[in-house]
Amino acid sequence: MPGLCVIGLQWGDEAKGKLVDWLAEGRDLIVRYQGGANAGHTVVVGDEVYKLHLIPSGIVNPGILNLITAGVVIHPKTLLGEIDSLLERGVDISDRLLLSGRAHCVMPWHIIEDKIWNQVNSGDDNIGTTLRGIGPCYRDKVGRSFAIRMSDLIQPDLEQQIRRITEYKIQSLAPFCENGQVDLDASQIVEEYSHYAKRLQPFIADTTRLLLDAVDQDKAILFEGAQGSLLDVDFGTYPFVTSSNSSGVGVSSGAGVPGKWIGKTIGVAKSYSTRVGGGPFPTELHDETGEHIRIKGNEFGTTTGRPRRCGWFDAVAVRYTCRLSGADTICLTMLDVLSELSKIDVCVAYELDGKRIEFFPENVANLRRVTPIYETLPGWQQDITSCRKREDLPPNARAYAARLSELCGRPIEFISVGPDREQTIVLNPDESLLDSLVS
Ligand code: GDP
Ligand code: IMO
Ligand code: MG
User: Fold this and answer.
1) CA 89 to chain centre
2) Which residue of 161, 197, 236, 389 shows the fewest CB atoms closer than 10 Å?
3) Could you tell me which residues are beta bridge partners of residue 424?
4) What is the per-residue pLDDT across 281-303, written as a single tens digit (0 to 9) for each?
5) How far is the CA of 238 from the centre of ligand 2 (A)?
6) What percent of the chain stands above pLDDT 70?
């Protein structure tokens, strides 16, 4: 069975976790294939709220195998914290979670480096990372000389490797630390990581082979993207991006499966836009509407708790990411957050140097200079959180969704009207959304 992918179409936090959990039933495998503990995916099942950073969002569903593959950078402490918290809550993960021996380990020096580098640029140039050591770990992965992978954790020379790298990191980081004191102690790191190795050993496996076998056996595989397409290191708003390919183009390399085995991609987009951290955001709202969306949508980072920047839906950006990520359909989330607004703006094009442009600029310097061209749609003053089918939605909410679909050039297959599994409307993607909505 060709693989199914869930990919964020904006700057992350589009509610990928909710959709993955919703789609997990009946699947054999759920795969996290890039990013690390910078991600924060929320799954809500009744009164239970699960915040997952590394473990795939399918874990709450019984009987499904969850894989963390080579493209992910794993912070063992965070992962063990997640495992323990799931166990405490009665979610049995034994035999249901496997980690690739090829995945890289986030080490204590990566967290220090992330902090140092994040301070290098200030103001508009500050990336505002999650400080989870993601960029430095990927840098060491590509650099090769100072990297530790999950399979290295269980090798006899782990202590030697840690001592070698710690020595180098202390030397290279000293000029950037107060009084030249780098807060790294090789013996302590050896002890800490040996403990992690012991605990994680049962989970470490050759997930590459396992996944290729699963493909040969026609298993149902769901790939869970982290971050969003606009944070992709190559195709996002560089340098205000994360350090992995977080758009649809990263599935194949991060998971280790040929692209031709990816059957369908569902792009997840909020009904408005948000962004955490720095970087250009053409439709950002600095007024009370932005504040209203932030409060109503509870737009505070799942990982860092930072307030998310909020703005109108940017159809120029999402049209681009639908194409880049190969989205076949869209899951439109948080539509309930826009209820109460009397009017809703949608960015349909940009103005750059006096000209109307319909494409997403390649360079952030240009993206910073664009002025959004808005189309205004009427709002709906009705609570929609209990809507369960298309017909339950107020006509203006349906018309809004239909217009977004038209602007992005993709059918909408799901509309989410609340965090719970139940608060999901399924639409028939074969029907023309616009026709079916206005009929
Ligand atoms: P992810 O990183 O893409 O998985 O998204 P996050 O979990 O970081 O952020 C999405 C937040 O919105 C979570 O708190 C979800 O529980 C919540 N959520 C998901 N779908 C909806 C929705 O349709 N409406 C509202 N109001 N909240 C939602
Ligand atoms: P999920 O999977 C939203 C952002 C950070 C920062 C930039 C680089 O929950 O959607 P990093 O720590 O990755 O080097 O930070 O990327 N960022 C996210 N924003 N959701 C995420 O993940 C993010 N992961 C990273 O805020 O701007
Ligand atoms: Mg998130």
Assistant:
1) 24
2) 389
3) 416
4) 999 999 999 999 999 999 998 77
5) 13
6) 97
Structure tokens at 76: 């063992």
Nearest atom, ligand 1, residue 20 CA: 4
Q: How far is the CA of 174 from the centre of ligand 1 (A)?
A: 41
d(CA 34, CA 15): 17
> Hey, what domains does the chain have and what are their CATH numbers?
3-91+207-438 (3.90.170.10), 104-202 (1.10.300.10)
CA atoms of 280 and 212, how far apart (whole Å): 39
How far, in Å, from the CA of 14 to the mean position of ligand 1?
Answer: 6
Average of per-residue pLDDT across 41-55: 96
**How many Å apart are CA 330 and CA 267, to the nearest integer?**
5
How far is residue 280 from each of residues 17, 126, 129, 314, measured CA to CA in Å?
Answer: 25, 11, 15, 12
pTM score over 0.90: yes
Beta bridge partners of 104: 73, 149
By three-state DSSP, how is residue 218 classified?
coil
pLDDT reported for residue 430 = 65
Question: Region 169-182: what's the mean pLDDT?
Answer: 95
Catalytic residues: 13, 41
Q: Which residues have C-beta within 8 Å of that of residue 100, sequence separation ≥ 6? A: 67, 68, 69, 70, 72, 150, 204, 205, 206, 207, 208
